[in-house]
Design goal:
heterodimer; A: alpha/beta; Rossmann fold; five-stranded parallel sheet; two-stranded antiparallel ribbon; 8 helices; 21% helix; B: alpha+beta; four-stranded mixed sheet; three-stranded antiparallel sheet; 13 helices
Chain lengths: 312, 449
């Protein structure tokens, strides 16, 4: 019997769904064992019936639910609740679902500040602004929430996007009746660059110049980017971006520092506090950071990022 | 008042939208409204961020076309910092951006749109999808999946991350391409070009002829168009001037930094999305089907309409054939699919051209830049249309204001109009069924929103 799978996307970009497609032929080979009952990116099953005449949203029952994106408006909330109700095992797919992801950066601002800017950008016609988004648009919630702030989550699969290898491994484990789990390792634990202990550079450099490396030699001949003085979130970020390939973390392989897209090493970790600690223990001056909130750019849900007026 | 039909969510598109069709007492369409429901607020939350970091934040606007946001953004930051871009870095950016077009077109044509044509608009929803195609035409499906995968993995292997890229940096590209990488990518691109040629031929022989009647009627509207052309008027995805064409074929060209003189966005009550219109036509904005005002379209059909020619031979031959059949500008909405395949051929040919130039392997790909106050407008042609990022920075090189007009938003008004047109045409005297509702959605899918 194929396993029934339902998939939905909330406050997201569709990168997680593209990561599923990036399984390529592996997905094709898995298809006989999977029965997709609802997946809007690929399939026309509708929330309100195929004739659009039902009053209440309905998603078919499924054994496995894949849910990407955080929860930002009332419609997301309704879809999340329906997915929870209908899926035996719910997977929070991607860092938006597990920690809010990039869209949770909005949590540093109130909805009024967002609307003020959105409707006064340089190209916005001031006419029509009064009644904007007043008919049939789902009202925003106060913040952008990770899924587990609103519903129970069974499996966390972070990543922006999650590596297809981990998506496949999770599905295969579930097919066998096992519980999949990513290892709790840091990006640094999987990074082959040369670390000599403490770096010689004490000021934190912005990434506006090239680090030192020889493009003709492998990545394991490059000095650790943090020890070269560039902010790199590797120490406080969960490993996994290169999947099961055994290769270097993806951004590092492009000679670019990590920004933390897999979220904290442990689900409840705090990338900002952990990184400030890591920098300080390397003897680096954290006052050089132009924008500290930037360290929470992938994990601003769970009340990590809050609007200034709420902070009092 | 009659009943209301809610098509929710729109499917086989990227993004969140729904259609509300209100019928009158006789069962005919009173109103057909398309709601665009997503609002994340990138323009707000990039404020205060170091500009060079924003290039790897805005990628999350779209997981299907992150390369294009990445490129428009690095170009905007180049502008803010007065960066001199290393020539090889610029070539690598252009090469990767064209390569990203290849995968996107395979994705849209085969995974999202083709089920309506291969399985038929009236097939049951449970098989009217790429999984259904895998069952009905397994060899074709495997080939399609392999080719899309190849396109994605060749980018990932070279540039580190294919979904949400990081290799574009102000001043250039983060790493050089060596000779063996160049040759490997060239070989893969040649394979993709063969697949593109097959796709074009297959569609012209096996798919499009069956749907010519639908092409002539479904979602048909009359509008202007926008796109990017090189100095000689050739189609270009990465750089050039913007060309805004009226429905009569007359056009104006302008620099991207002057976009505010030509385009404005109109907020609507039915959507979070704002509806761009041609401000420079001085006729206001109206989505009236018989007399639209200020409405223009973007994406592939628009680009093929505005360009004078294509700089690569196979795509140019296809363009000539297309124009002799449908004229310039071509208005029929379902022709977007045809135009998309011509662009698939072009993006393969263009990528191949860029990789054939050994200058792309120059080891200097990145110049240092200095954060400073400034303004920069960067634009590219994303698969879904003209993509504009406009940033202003403070003395510390952090963003003080950001404005973005992304590809699909240019098409919000045209999509809404095509939906209304097809709903009014297809729903008569209370008769409505799944096939009709899917056909209404097909008029949206053509735009690949």
């Amino acid at each position: 019997m194929p396993v029934k799978v339902a998939s939905e996307w909330l406050n997201s970009c569709s990168g997680c769904e593209i990561a599923i497609l990036n399984l390529g032929e592996t997905l094709l080979d898995l298809l006989p064992e999977l029965d997709f009952v609802h997946i809007p990116v690929l399939m026309d099953h509708k929330h309100l019936g195929q004739l659009g005449d039902k009053e209440h949203m309905e998603i078919p029952k499924a054994t496995v639910g894949l849910l990407s994106g955080g929860i930002r408006n009332e419609e997301h909330m309704e879809v999340a609740l329906e997915m929870r109700k209908k899926c035996d095992i719910l997977i929070a797919l991607g860092t938006c679902a597990t920690h809010g992801g990039i869209p949770a950066l909005i949590n540093s601002f109130g909805n009024d500040q967002l609307m003020d800017r959105y409707y006064t950008t340089e190209s916005t016609d001031p006419k029509g602004g009064e009644t904007a988004a007043s008919k049939g648009c789902s009202p925003l919630l106060q913040r952008c929430y990770a899924l587990d702030e609103k519903i129970d989550v069974d499996i966390y699969l972070p990543g922006c996007p999650p590596h297809p290898d981990h998506i496949a491994a999770a599905i295969l484990a579930l097919l066998k009746g096992e519980t999949p789990e990513l290892p709790f390792k840091s990006v640094c634990d999987t990074c082959p660059t040369i670390r000599k202990g403490k770096g010689d550079v004490k000021e934190i450099k912005r990434f506006v110049a090239s680090p030192e490396f020889d493009p003709e030699t492998p990545i394991d001949t490059m000095r650790c980017l943090l020890e070269q003085g560039y902010l790199c979130m590797g120490p406080v970020t969960r490993a996994g971006c290169s999947g099961a390939t055994g290769e270097a973390p993806k951004c590092i392989s492009a000679r670019v520092p990590c920004r933390g897209c897999y979220g904290p090493v442990k689900q409840e970790g705090n990338q900002l506090l952990d990184m400030l600690n890591a920098l300080a223990s390397n003897g680096m001056d954290v006052r050089d950071l132009p924008d500290r909130a930037n360290l929470l750019r992938f994990s601003g849900a769970h009340n990590r990022l809050v609007a200034k007026k709420e902070r009092k | 008042m009659g009943k209301t039909i809610n098509i929710q969510p729109l499917s086989r598109i990227e993004g969140h939208a729904s259609i509300e069709i209100k019928l009158d007492d006789t069962g005919n369409v009173d109103k057909a409204i398309t709601h665009f429901n997503s609002l994340r607020g990138f323009e707000k939350y990039v404020e205060g961020k170091p500009a060079e970091e924003v290039t790897r934040i805005v990628t999350r606007i779209c997981g299907i076309c992150p390369w294009h946001h990445h490129m428009a953004s690095v170009k905007a930051v180049d502008g803010c910092f007065d960066a001199e871009v290393a020539p090889a870095g610029n070539m690598l950016r252009e090469c990767m951006q064209n390569m990203a077009h290849i995968n996107d077109k395979i994705l849209h044509f085969y995974f999202l749109a083709a089920p309506d044509f291969v399985m038929g608009p009236d097939a049951d929803y449970s098989v009217r999808n790429v999984i259904g195609i895998a069952g009905a035409a397994p060899d074709l499906a495997r080939q399609v999946i392999k080719m899309r995968q190849k396109g994605q993995m060749m980018m990932e292997k070279f540039a580190g991350k294919v979904i949400h890229p990081i290799a574009g940096v102000p001043g250039g590209f983060s790493k050089p391409m060596n000779e063996s990488q160049r040759q490997e990518l060239l070989k893969d691109t040649e394979e993709l070009l063969e697949f593109a040629k097959f796709s074009m031929k297959h569609a012209k022989e096996e798919i499009f002829p069956k749907y010519l009647d639908s092409v002539k009627t479904l979602g048909v509207i009359n509008t202007g168009f926008i796109g990017t052309v090189a100095d000689d008027g050739a189609l270009n995805f990465y750089d050039g001037k913007l060309r805004l064409m009226k429905s009569d074929g007359t056009f104006e060209d302008f620099d991207d930094s002057d976009y505010l003189d030509h385009i404005a966005e109109y907020p609507m009550d039915v959507s979070y999305g704002k509806y761009p219109y041609a401000k420079s036509w001085n006729e206001g904005f109206s989505m009236d089907l018989d007399a639209p005002k200020g409405v223009y379209r973007s994406n592939c059909l628009a680009r093929l309409n505005v360009c004078d020619h294509i700089s690569t031979p196979l795509a140019q031959a296809e363009l000539e054939e297309f124009r002799s059949s449908f004229g310039r500008p071509a208005q029929l909405t379902l022709l977007y699919h045809w135009a998309r395949l011509i662009e698939l051929v072009y993006s393969c040919e263009k990528t191949k051209q860029l990789l054939e130039d050994r200058a792309i392997t120059d080891p200097t790909t990145r110049n240092s830049v200095t954060p400073k106050a400034g303004r920069g407008v960067g634009h590219v042609e994303a698969p879904r249309g003209t993509l504009i990022h406009d940033y202003t920075t403070d003395d510390n090189g952090c963003i003080t204001s950001a404005n973005m007009i992304v590809g699909t938003t240019h098409n919000l008004a045209p999509i809404s109009m095509s939906v209304e047109q097809s709903a009014r045409m297809l729903i008569k005297d209370g008769h409505v069924d799944e096939t009709i509702l899917n056909q209404v959605e097909m008029s949206v899918r053509a735009y690949d929103p």
